[in-house]
Amino acid sequence: MARTVFILNGPNLNLLGLREPEIYGRETLADVEAACARLAGELGLATDFRQSNHEGVLVDWIHEARQAAAGIVINPGAYTHTSVAILDALNAFAGPVIEVHVSNVHRREAFRHRSYVSLRAEAVIAGCGTEGYLLALRRMATLLGAA
C-alpha cells in the first residue's frame, strides 16, 4: 500500500500560472498536482494535494495529516513568514516535513527571508520553480524509505 504525502499549498497558489508569471512561471497548480501524482506513483507514494487561502484550514489539514499522512510537503505561501499557528501544527506532526517555494525567497524582499516553517522542516527547496515540488517528493520518498 502506498504511503500518503499531503501536499499543502497556501494563499494565492491557486493563481499559479496567472499571477506574476515572471516570478512564478506559467504552470498552473493543476499542472503541478498532475506532475506530483505521476511522480508519486513511480516512487511508490500517494498524494493528497490541497490548496487554501485560509490559515485555519491549513492548520486543520496538518492536524488531519497526523492520522492520514506519512509526510507533508508544504508551500505555505505568505504564511511562511507570519504563521506561528502553522509552525505549532507542524510541530505536532510526527512525520517528515519539506518546505517548498517556487521562487527564491532569499532574492526577494527582506521580510520573505524569515520562515517559521523552516524551524520544523527537514528540508527547504526554494527557487527551483514548480520542479521544487518534484524534488521534494523525491526527498520525501528517501526520508520515508520508499525510494
Query: Strand-residue fraction?
Result: 15-25%
In N-to-C order, the SSE pattern is EHHEHEHEEH
Number of discrete domains: 1
Please give the number of β-strands: 5
Q: Find the CATH superfamily.
A: Dehydroquinase, class II
In CATH's first tier, which class applies?
A: Alpha Beta
**Helix-strand category:** alpha/beta
Main pleated-sheet profile: 5 strands, parallel
CATH topology: Rossmann fold
Order of the strands making up the biggest sheet: 2-1-3-4-5
Radius of gyration: 14 Å
Distance between the amino and carboxyl termini? 14 Å
Number of helices: 5
Helix content: 25-40%
Global morphology: globular
Low-pLDDT windows of residues: none
CATH architectural arrangement: 3-Layer(aba) Sandwich
Average pLDDT? 92
Short overview:
The protein has 147 residues and is of the alpha/beta class. The protein has 5 helices and 5 strands.
Task: Explain the overall architecture.
This protein is an alpha/beta fold. It has a single domain (3-143), classed as Rossmann fold (3-Layer(aba) Sandwich). Helices cover 37% and strands 19% of the residues. The protein is built from 5 helices and 5 strands, in the order βααβαβαββα. It has helices at 21-24, 29-43, 55-68, 84-91, 131-143; strands at residues 3-9, 45-51, 71-75, 97-101, 123-126. It has a 5-stranded parallel beta sheet, sandwiched between helices. Helix 2 runs parallel beside helix 5 (131-143) and helix 3 packs parallel to helix 4 (84-91). The longest helix is centred in the first third of the chain and has 15 residues, at 29-43. The radius of gyration is 14 Å and the shape is globular. The model has no long low-confidence stretch (mean pLDDT 92).
